[in-house]
Design brief:
heterodimer; A: alpha/beta; TIM Barrel; 8-stranded parallel sheet; 3-stranded antiparallel sheet; 16 helices; 16% strand; B: alpha/beta; 2 domains; 17 helices; 12% strand; binds zinc ion; cytoplasm (chain A)
Chain lengths: 416, 557
């Protein structure tokens, strides 16, 4: 990997970087759409690429179940298997083991789980996880970590953090011995729950291993914790992580979360949210999510967003047509999925431009006005951005409420 | 809504030329070209026949985003059943406006696609309340009246409209009295659509601007079918003549004839039923083709179709909806001279995981790998475990774009141009920031090279993991295979001795390929199993609602 920071925001910790991997250059900060099982819902890889996406994600847990390592090896890796010619990232599989299977038991050796096919007890070790990720052949691979829910408290959190450090060492050793270090770049995952002291210990330990890892992920967040806690942990990690390594916040996808993370110094994020919500009829826009199932869209011949360059909007697909087909026809899901992936890419692309042009604080302010001006700013976001020198309320002439709590923005169904 | 010829420029004109009537018989196979000239400077849309029309569900081609249906050149004729838009009045496509409102609303290209508007989905044979004298039932909440239909048609300006007809979807068999009524109503509803529009004084526009196709009604009664056709040719008098002036006969305003095979088959099955032979549940039309439909041989349909066409002019387009197999298509080309078929069966094959793999005329593609069957399958049930490690392209009968380029010696296999067999890299990447070009060092002007095809193993994986991309790729592939099939039909018919060669080739095709379509049956079983294993997590109610409104084409979102 070649990683180079090419511009920094003069106020916040945001930065623009160039990350060169085996399958080309990806400009950061970026959002990575999730192709869990080697496909992004209903689209072909060529369609995804045409949207300006240069890095996407496959899930190791799922890929290992289907199609399985044998097929991936025969196909010559996941890139060839799914026809994706750009960069690919895989997770370690650990998160899904814990979230999808109640019977998973963590031991020092690895994660013990019941095979979903045979019911046989099966062990996923750090070495095994890396080996599977090598077969998948992703450009960025993740260490196996000991995942606990962000709502877990007590000694288990510290234990998981410490084990994640030990597992990192095993992943590094296995990875280096495999001789595949030049093609696959291993990222460490910072754990430690919502405890600042544990996070600090983890950061120290993992930063010690900097020369043997290509980048850092910030894990164990976005699992239902309060937003106020979320941003403080994110900031603590992003502040401390080394300047010359990419920083990846896992499982982040809401527009406001993404921009706050970028302002805190995060370079990459992934989430199933934009593609999942598309299937349920929600189109993302700069004035907030749009629920296309609502009757108010039934006669609206305007596209989702006239400014949007996605195939759906630029072709003039009307909200009325989308309303008629969404949740009924797969083609409706495809149209909104194309739009939502493009929305995420625009959000991050405009952040890159703003950082380069020295206007990132303005970009943040104008985004929040357009997105939250009507319902009020989430207090946590206001506080998070104040911590990096941007006051969202500065220069706002009209009255905008600041809303406590975890404030999101949704158009709820009117039953239509 | 008033007729508004003055506020809209003229409608487009559809003409049809039989370039090479291969036989003297009015029912022999024929080659033709449909030409749609729009009322502007754009070149006419020209489509050769025999050809096929792509069906839509809620107005869109199942599984295809707009970029995908543009890429799929096989898509030429498009049929839009209007009934789902009756759920909310006024129907939203009527609000679109412009010179080609349906093309605009649904994203079809005015240069590429001829859009046909029909009230009902021709494949939908579900039982319905009886139609009235002035009202046709549809599966949506409301039906439609002939006058409302007329106003929707003038607002939507389809390239072709299928006149309302009174086809009973009450439980067959239908009485003689019911048939008589069906004929009267269908005739009167056609006449309503043929009412001349009001023109400006100095206008030399056509007072009958619509291109109208009419259903051949009369059910399974040969006499009734003949009477209906003769009625179309009768010179009208008095009020009836006044209603359609300056036309003299209804047929003068008709551009094409339509046969919907679903209601015909349902009636034929009911007749067998009433003769006390047990038959499968005839109202289950949510699977294709239904066992009941399969039990009605093409040969039972042919006399009925001939009875309708016998007295009618031969130079008009003949359209058949819901043919169940390529075998049936070939027989209807050979024995009835049908010009256009819908692609319903091939499109549904994509829903159930079948990649079509056949050609006409037949070619030798090596040994049949389904040794347990005596005939070749029409395609591959990609759910089958045998494809888990199969890295071949989708079809043996076709090349893929990438490997066709590496060929030294010319290959007799054509390239399947679909986005699954011959994918191309995107012609552009949306740029989201000033530095995005660093990700794309290659010149945008470099010629695009075909990418490797999507493999069976990948499609197998997508089907088992319930990824919608499988259906998108299969839909494009299947339409392209059907296109090549009909193009093969045209090539054979263009032979100097076309009819004879065609007849021989049809026999060979029937000999080569399994007409029982076992592979579809297997695929449907696999599909059901995967759906069932998967369905647990989802609200059954949501799923039923989707299945109901999309006539079983539903693929879980
Ligand atoms: Zn868009
Ligand atoms: Zn193909």
């Amino acid at each position: 990997m070649q990683f180079e920071v090419i511009a920094k925001c003069h106020t916040t910790r945001a930065r623009v970087s160039r990350m060169k991997l085996s399958h080309g250059v990806t400009m950061l900060p970026t959002f990575m759409p999730v192709a869990t099982q080697a496909a992004i819902k209903g689209l072909t890889p060529q369609q995804v690429e045409s949207l300006g996406v240069t890095l996407m994600l496959n899930n190791t847990y799922h890929m290992n179940l289907r199609p399985g390592i044998k097929v991936l090896d025969d196909a010559g890796g996941a890139h060839r298997f799914q026809g994706w010619t750009r960069n690919l990232l895989t997770d370690s599989g650990g998160f899904q083991l814990v979230s999808l299977s109640k019977f998973t038991k963590i031991t020092e050796e690895g994660a013990l789980f019941a095979s979903p096919f045979t019911g046989e007890p099966t062990m996923l070790t750090p070495e095994e996880s890396i080996s599977i990720q090598h077969s998948i052949g992703a450009d960025i691979i993740m260490q196996l970590d000991d995942v606990v829910s962000s709502l877990t408290t007590g000694p288990r959190v510290g234990e998981a953090m410490e084990r994640s450090v030990r597992w990192l060492d095993r992943c590094i050793d296995y990875h280096e011995r495999s001789g595949k270090k030049d093609r696959h770049n291993l990222f460490a995952i910072v754990q430690g729950g919502l405890d600042h002291d544990l996070r600090d210990i983890c950061l120290d330990e993992m930063i010690k291993r900097k020369d043997r890892v290509a980048g850092y992920a910030i894990g164990g967040l976005s699992g239902g914790e309060e937003k106020d806690t979320f941003w403080r942990i994110m900031k603590q990690c992003a502040d401390k992580l080394p300047e010359d390594r990419p920083r990846y916040s896992m499982g982040i996808g809401f527009a406001e979360d993404l921009l706050v993370c970028v302002a805190l110094g995060v370079d990459m994020a992934d989430c199933v949210f934009p593609t999942r919500t598309a299937r349920f009829g929600v189109a993302l826009t700069f004035s907030g999510p749009l629920n296309l199932k609502l009757a108010k869209h039934a006669k609206d011949l305007a596209p989702i967003d006239t400014q949007c360059p996605c195939p759906t909007c630029s072709d003039g697909v009307s909200r009325a047509l989308l309303h008629h087909i969404i949740t009924q026809e797969t083609a409706g899901a495809h149209a909104v999925t194309q739009h939502n992936i493009t929305f995420q890419a625009r959000l991050m692309g405009q952040a890159r431009d703003a950082i380069i042009n020295g206007t990132f604080p303005d970009y943040l302010r104008s985004f929040f006005v357009a997105y939250f001006g009507d319902v009020g700013y989430p207090e946590w976001a206001v506080n998070a951005l104040r911590s990096v020198g941007v006051d969202l309320l500065d220069g706002i002439s009209k009255d905008v409420n600041v809303v406590p709590g975890d404030g999101g923005k949704w158009e709820y169904s009117d039953r239509s | 809504m008033a007729d508004v010829s003055t506020t809209h420029p003229g409608f487009s004109t559809l003409s049809f030329h039989l370039s090479c009537p291969a036989s003297a018989s009015p029912f022999g196979p024929r080659l033709g070209r449909a030409s749609l000239k729009r009322n502007n400077d754009s070149p006419a849309v020209e489509i050769d026949t025999p050809g096929f029309l792509t069906t839509t569900s809620r107005g869109v081609i199942p599984h295809l985003s707009r970029d995908h249906h543009r890429f799929t050149e096989a898509i030429r004729w498009v049929l839009i059943p209007f009934e789902t838009f009756l759920e909310r009045l006024p129907p939203v496509p009527t609000l679109q406006g412009g010179s080609t409102p349906l093309h605009k609303f649904f994203g079809y290209s005015p240069l590429q696609n001829i859009v046909i508007m029909s009230a009902r989905d021709p494949f939908d044979g579900r039982e319905l309340p009886p139609n009235g004298n002035d009202h046709i039932s549809s599966y949506s909440m409301r039906g439609v009246t002939p006058s409302a239909w007329r106003s929707y048609v003038f607002a939507c300006r389809p390239d072709i409209v299928i006149a309302l007809s009174d086809t009973p979807f009450t439980k067959p068999p239908h009485s003689q009295k019911r048939l008589t009524k069906s004929l009267e109503r269908s005739t009167s509803w056609l006449s309503n659509l043929l009412r001349p529009i009001e023109l400006d004084d100095d206008s030399n526009s056509n007072p009958h601007p619509l291109n109208i196709f009419v259903h051949m009604v009369g059910g399974t009664d040969l006499a009734a079918r003949r009477i209906f056709s003769e009625g179309l040719l009768e010179t009208l008098r008095d009020n009836e003549a006044e209603a359609i002036k300056p036309l003299k006969r209804l047929d003068d305003g008709v551009t094409g004839y339509v046969f919907d095979l679903v209601p015909l088959r349902l009636s034929l099955v009911a007749e067998i039923d009433s003769a006390n032979i047990s038959s499968p549940d005839i109202l289950d039309t949510t699977t294709v083709p239904t066992a009941a439909q399969m039990s009605v041989d093409t040969s039972a349909l042919i006399p009925l179709m001939k009875a309708s066409l016998n007295s009618l002019p031969t130079q008009k387009i003949r359209l058949v909806n819901s043919a169940i197999s390529p075998h049936e298509i070939l027989r209807l080309v050979r024995d009835v001279g049908i010009d256009v078929f819908d692609a319903h069966w091939a499109q549904r094959a994509a829903d159930i995981g079948v990649a079509l793999d056949f050609r006409f005329p037949i070619v030798d593609t090596g040994p049949n790998n389904q040794t347990h069957r005596t005939k070749k399958d029409l395609g591959h049930n990609l759910y089958d475990q045998v494809y888990a490690h199969d890295f071949k392209r989708l079809a043996d009968c076709f090349m893929d774009g990438a490997s066709s380029l590496g060929q030294d010696s010319p290959c007799n296999r054509p390239v399947c141009p679909c986005a699954a067999c011959s994918p191309l890299p995107p012609c552009q990447h949306i740029s989201h920031s000033s530095i995005d070009s660093e990700s794309y060092p290659e010149s945008v002007h470099a010629p695009r090279q075909f990418l490797p095809p999507f493999r069976r193993a990948y499609l197998h994986h997508l089907l088992h993991t319930h990824e919608m991309s499988s259906h998108s790729l299969l839909a494009m592939h299947n339409l392209s295979v059907l296109d090549a099939f009909l193009s093969g039909v045209r090539t054979v018919l263009a032979h100097p001795n076309g009819t004879a060669v065609f007849t021989t080739e049809v026999d060979k095709f029937v000999e080569e390929y399994d007409e029982e379509m076992k592979v579809f049956e297997d695929a449907r079983k696999s599909w059901t199993e995967v759906e069932r294993a998967r369905g647990k997590g989802r609200l059954a109610r949501e799923k039923d609602k989707q299945a109901e409104s999309t006539l079983g084409t539903a693929v879980e979102l």
